[in-house]
Amino acid sequence: MLPILPIDDPDDPRIAVFRAVRERDVAGRESGFIAEGEVVLRVLSRSRLHKARSVLVDRKRVGGLTPILAAFGPDVAFYSASQPVMDAIAGFHIHRGILAFGARASAALASELLATLHGPALVLMLFGVSNHDNIGGIFRNAAAFGVSAVLLDGACCDPLYRKSIRVSVGAALTVPFARLGAGEEPISLLEGHNFTPLALSPSGKTPLARLASPARAAVLLGAEGAGLPAALLARARTIAVPMAGSFDSLNVATTSGIVLHHLTFGTARI
């Protein structure tokens, strides 16, 4: 039997990491993160990057979740509470009835992560993507199409924000990512590790359908509206996704899915 400890007091210090979830999300919590929902919990139980430290579930769901909970290691603390108590702890209605607190993997610089990738590889590099839904969608696509790593500049939002993890259906917990370090020049960094930079832009010179996939490709994506900085576009091969009529704008997460599918399944490698 799993040692699941009952929680009847929302102020119980043992579940302090779950308190006021919404208000504390962006600021972070003890170098950790909050994950929610059954699908994400299952992914977290298998993640080799980020480890769970504690799990809080609706008391009525304990029986059905036992196989997933049993997949966690012995160092994970399990708690159960009634729905009203869970809602009081979180500060809003937790209709999924599942919260987990995890410890982040040690932060790596982009250069360190790239140095671990050998042979053919596909990576994403993101600039200024500050919407949590977009980050979650991009990580979901990254996992679906075999991306080896996601690199983010300092203006991108946290992939381990609760909503990002949920939208990614847990992919943010399995796809390695790193931040660009101060002074790391993106194009030089990629070329130094033998990656071909492919910058997405409505004014890109190469239509996506004509793009053959480099053995080591880095897809560069910018924020919606602003796009990629001109200095990056000037040094990378620019790629456009053709669209009907005069329309020239796609959601950045949608763009990532189209481009990654093409590079993974739609072209021969060069």
Attribute tags:
270 residues; alpha/beta; 60s Ribosomal Protein L30, Chain: A; 2 domains; five-stranded mixed β-sheet; 22% strand
Rg to the nearest angstrom? 20 Å
**CATH fold naming of the largest domain:** Alpha/beta knot
In helices, the fraction of residues equals 25-40%
User: What is the CATH class name of the largest domain?
Assistant: Alpha Beta
User: How many strand segments?
Assistant: 12
Spatial shape: elongated
Largest sheet geometry: 7 strands, parallel
Name the strands of the widest sheet in spatial order: 8-7-6-11-9-12-10
- Indicate the proportion of strand residues: 15-25%
Note poorly predicted spans: none
Summarize the structure.
With about 270 residues, this protein is an alpha/beta fold. About 30% of the residues lie in helices and about 20% in strands.
Structure write-up:
With 270 residues, the protein is of the alpha/beta class. The protein has 2 domains: 4-103, 60s Ribosomal Protein L30, Chain: A, CATH 3.30.1330.30; 110-266, Alpha/beta knot (3-Layer(aba) Sandwich). The chain is built from 10 helices and 12 strands. The protein has helices spanning 21-24, 38-46, 62-69, 83-90, 110-114, 132-144, 162-167, 186-192, 230-235, 252-266; strands at 4-6, 32-36, 51-58, 77-81, 98-103, 121-127, 149-152, 177-179, 196-200, 206-207, 216-222, 237-240. Strands 8-7-6-11-9-12-10 form a 7-stranded parallel sheet. Strands 1-4-3-5-2 form a 5-stranded mixed sheet. α6 packs parallel to α10 (252-266). The longest helix has 15 residues, at 252-266. The model has no long low-confidence stretch (mean pLDDT 92).
